[in-house]
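Entry for the shared binder. Reason: the reviewer on the internal report wants the predicted structure included alongside the sequence.
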Amino acid sequence: MENTIKKATIFTTVLISILTAGDTLQVDLENSQIKWIGRKVTGEHAGTLNLSEGWVVMEKNTVLVGKFVFDMASITNTDIESPEWKQKLEDHLKTQDFFHTDSFPHAILAIKGRQLVVVDNSNKSEQVLAELTIKGITHEIKFPYDLTKSQNNFTAEGSLDIDRTLYNIQYNSGKFFEDLGDKLIYDDFTVEFKVQTKIK
Protein backbone atom coordinates (compact mmCIF):
# COMPACT_ATOMS: atom_id res chain seq x y z
CA MET A 1 0.00 0.00 0.00
CA GLU A 2 2.82 2.36 0.96
CA ASN A 3 4.66 1.61 -2.32
CA THR A 4 1.47 2.32 -4.27
CA ILE A 5 1.11 5.70 -2.57
CA LYS A 6 4.75 6.54 -3.28
CA LYS A 7 4.36 5.60 -6.93
CA ALA A 8 1.21 7.68 -7.23
CA THR A 9 2.97 10.64 -5.61
CA ILE A 10 5.94 10.35 -7.95
CA PHE A 11 3.62 10.09 -10.98
CA THR A 12 1.67 13.15 -9.88
CA THR A 13 4.87 15.15 -9.35
CA VAL A 14 6.17 14.22 -12.81
CA LEU A 15 2.83 15.03 -14.42
CA ILE A 16 2.67 18.45 -12.77
CA SER A 17 6.23 19.22 -13.84
CA ILE A 18 5.36 18.34 -17.46
CA LEU A 19 2.22 20.46 -17.48
CA THR A 20 4.06 23.46 -16.02
CA ALA A 21 7.22 23.04 -18.11
CA GLY A 22 6.30 26.13 -20.12
CA ASP A 23 6.16 29.61 -18.64
CA THR A 24 2.98 31.55 -19.48
CA LEU A 25 3.73 35.22 -20.12
CA GLN A 26 1.20 38.00 -20.65
CA VAL A 27 1.69 40.49 -23.47
CA ASP A 28 2.48 44.08 -22.53
CA LEU A 29 -0.31 45.77 -24.50
CA GLU A 30 0.99 49.32 -24.01
CA ASN A 31 4.49 48.53 -25.27
CA SER A 32 3.48 46.31 -28.19
CA GLN A 33 2.98 47.74 -31.68
CA ILE A 34 0.94 46.45 -34.61
CA LYS A 35 1.21 48.28 -37.94
CA TRP A 36 -0.53 47.59 -41.24
CA ILE A 37 0.16 48.54 -44.84
CA GLY A 38 -2.44 48.26 -47.62
CA ARG A 39 -1.47 48.81 -51.24
CA LYS A 40 -3.34 49.87 -54.35
CA VAL A 41 -2.43 50.80 -57.91
CA THR A 42 -2.07 54.48 -57.04
CA GLY A 43 -0.07 54.05 -53.84
CA GLU A 44 -0.52 52.74 -50.30
CA HIS A 45 -1.92 53.54 -46.88
CA ALA A 46 -0.59 52.63 -43.46
CA GLY A 47 -1.86 52.62 -39.92
CA THR A 48 -2.00 50.90 -36.56
CA LEU A 49 -4.09 48.34 -34.73
CA ASN A 50 -4.36 47.59 -31.01
CA LEU A 51 -4.12 44.30 -29.19
CA SER A 52 -6.88 43.77 -26.63
CA GLU A 53 -5.18 40.77 -25.01
CA GLY A 54 -2.41 38.28 -25.58
CA TRP A 55 -0.28 35.61 -23.98
CA VAL A 56 2.42 33.11 -24.93
CA VAL A 57 3.82 29.97 -23.35
CA MET A 58 7.61 29.98 -23.43
CA GLU A 59 10.06 27.19 -22.80
CA LYS A 60 13.52 28.67 -22.43
CA ASN A 61 13.80 30.87 -25.54
CA THR A 62 11.12 29.10 -27.57
CA VAL A 63 7.47 30.01 -28.15
CA LEU A 64 5.32 26.90 -27.68
CA VAL A 65 1.78 28.23 -28.04
CA GLY A 66 -0.01 31.53 -27.64
CA LYS A 67 -2.99 33.68 -28.45
CA PHE A 68 -3.35 37.28 -29.61
CA VAL A 69 -6.68 39.10 -29.83
CA PHE A 70 -6.83 42.21 -32.04
CA ASP A 71 -9.31 45.03 -31.47
CA MET A 72 -10.48 45.62 -35.05
CA ALA A 73 -12.49 48.70 -34.08
CA SER A 74 -9.20 50.38 -33.08
CA ILE A 75 -7.87 50.40 -36.65
CA THR A 76 -6.44 53.82 -37.52
CA ASN A 77 -4.70 55.48 -40.45
CA THR A 78 -1.39 57.27 -39.94
CA ASP A 79 -0.42 58.63 -43.38
CA ILE A 80 -3.37 60.81 -44.48
CA GLU A 81 -2.94 64.43 -43.39
CA SER A 82 -6.52 65.55 -44.00
CA PRO A 83 -8.64 64.75 -40.90
CA GLU A 84 -11.71 64.36 -43.12
CA TRP A 85 -10.15 61.81 -45.51
CA LYS A 86 -8.38 60.03 -42.66
CA GLN A 87 -11.72 59.52 -40.88
CA LYS A 88 -13.36 58.47 -44.15
CA LEU A 89 -10.80 55.69 -44.69
CA GLU A 90 -10.98 54.49 -41.08
CA ASP A 91 -14.77 54.34 -41.22
CA HIS A 92 -14.67 52.47 -44.54
CA LEU A 93 -12.24 49.86 -43.14
CA LYS A 94 -14.79 49.10 -40.41
CA THR A 95 -17.66 48.46 -42.84
CA GLN A 96 -18.75 45.23 -44.54
CA ASP A 97 -16.46 46.08 -47.48
CA PHE A 98 -13.51 45.30 -45.25
CA PHE A 99 -13.45 44.11 -41.60
CA HIS A 100 -17.13 44.58 -40.63
CA THR A 101 -16.20 45.42 -37.05
CA ASP A 102 -19.80 45.70 -35.81
CA SER A 103 -20.25 41.96 -36.34
CA PHE A 104 -16.62 40.88 -35.99
CA PRO A 105 -14.97 43.13 -33.41
CA HIS A 106 -11.94 40.88 -32.97
CA ALA A 107 -9.40 39.05 -35.08
CA ILE A 108 -7.50 36.21 -33.42
CA LEU A 109 -4.05 34.75 -34.01
CA ALA A 110 -3.61 31.39 -32.27
CA ILE A 111 -0.05 30.06 -32.24
CA LYS A 112 0.02 26.28 -32.59
CA GLY A 113 3.75 25.61 -32.79
CA ARG A 114 6.94 26.41 -34.65
CA GLN A 115 8.94 25.19 -37.59
CA LEU A 116 12.66 25.35 -38.33
CA VAL A 117 13.55 26.50 -41.83
CA VAL A 118 16.97 25.92 -43.38
CA VAL A 119 18.16 29.19 -44.89
CA ASP A 120 21.44 27.76 -46.19
CA ASN A 121 23.82 24.97 -45.21
CA SER A 122 24.85 26.63 -41.96
CA ASN A 123 21.92 28.81 -40.91
CA LYS A 124 18.41 28.03 -39.78
CA SER A 125 15.52 30.33 -38.99
CA GLU A 126 12.36 29.72 -37.01
CA GLN A 127 8.81 30.50 -38.04
CA VAL A 128 5.49 30.43 -36.26
CA LEU A 129 2.74 28.00 -37.21
CA ALA A 130 -0.62 29.55 -36.40
CA GLU A 131 -4.29 29.95 -37.23
CA LEU A 132 -5.57 33.42 -38.13
CA THR A 133 -9.26 34.23 -37.76
CA ILE A 134 -10.71 37.33 -39.46
CA LYS A 135 -14.46 37.93 -39.89
CA GLY A 136 -15.11 34.50 -38.38
CA ILE A 137 -13.03 32.74 -41.06
CA THR A 138 -9.94 30.76 -40.03
CA HIS A 139 -6.92 29.82 -42.11
CA GLU A 140 -3.52 28.39 -41.27
CA ILE A 141 -0.63 30.80 -41.61
CA LYS A 142 3.10 30.75 -40.97
CA PHE A 143 5.67 33.52 -40.75
CA PRO A 144 9.20 34.16 -39.45
CA TYR A 145 10.04 36.28 -36.44
CA ASP A 146 13.04 37.50 -34.46
CA LEU A 147 13.01 36.91 -30.72
CA THR A 148 15.18 38.81 -28.28
CA LYS A 149 15.38 38.41 -24.53
CA SER A 150 16.19 41.02 -21.95
CA GLN A 151 16.66 40.22 -18.31
CA ASN A 152 12.94 40.06 -17.53
CA ASN A 153 10.97 39.84 -20.77
CA PHE A 154 10.88 38.86 -24.45
CA THR A 155 10.35 40.91 -27.61
CA ALA A 156 9.24 39.36 -30.91
CA GLU A 157 9.48 41.31 -34.17
CA GLY A 158 8.54 40.45 -37.72
CA SER A 159 6.09 40.92 -40.54
CA LEU A 160 3.64 38.83 -42.54
CA ASP A 161 1.58 39.25 -45.68
CA ILE A 162 -2.10 38.32 -45.51
CA ASP A 163 -4.36 37.60 -48.48
CA ARG A 164 -7.53 39.48 -47.53
CA THR A 165 -9.67 37.60 -50.05
CA LEU A 166 -9.28 34.42 -48.00
CA TYR A 167 -11.31 36.19 -45.31
CA ASN A 168 -14.11 37.36 -47.61
CA ILE A 169 -12.68 40.85 -48.10
CA GLN A 170 -13.22 41.29 -51.83
CA TYR A 171 -13.64 45.05 -52.20
CA ASN A 172 -11.96 46.25 -55.43
CA SER A 173 -10.00 43.01 -55.77
CA GLY A 174 -8.79 42.08 -59.22
CA LYS A 175 -9.75 38.46 -58.51
CA PHE A 176 -13.44 39.35 -58.38
CA PHE A 177 -13.87 42.55 -60.38
CA GLU A 178 -12.75 43.53 -63.87
CA ASP A 179 -11.73 46.88 -65.32
CA LEU A 180 -11.04 48.50 -61.95
CA GLY A 181 -8.33 50.73 -63.37
CA ASP A 182 -6.81 52.97 -60.70
CA LYS A 183 -9.40 51.77 -58.16
CA LEU A 184 -7.79 48.31 -57.88
CA ILE A 185 -6.62 47.36 -54.37
CA TYR A 186 -4.05 44.58 -54.09
CA ASP A 187 -5.15 41.43 -52.27
CA ASP A 188 -2.17 41.13 -49.91
CA PHE A 189 -1.73 43.53 -47.02
CA THR A 190 1.22 43.57 -44.65
CA VAL A 191 1.22 43.43 -40.86
CA GLU A 192 4.37 44.46 -39.02
CA PHE A 193 4.58 43.62 -35.34
CA LYS A 194 6.71 44.26 -32.30
CA VAL A 195 5.24 42.37 -29.37
CA GLN A 196 6.66 42.53 -25.89
CA THR A 197 5.83 40.42 -22.85
CA LYS A 198 5.22 41.96 -19.46
CA ILE A 199 8.15 42.16 -17.08
CA LYS A 200 7.88 39.34 -14.58
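Summary line for the report: The longest helix spans residues 2-19.
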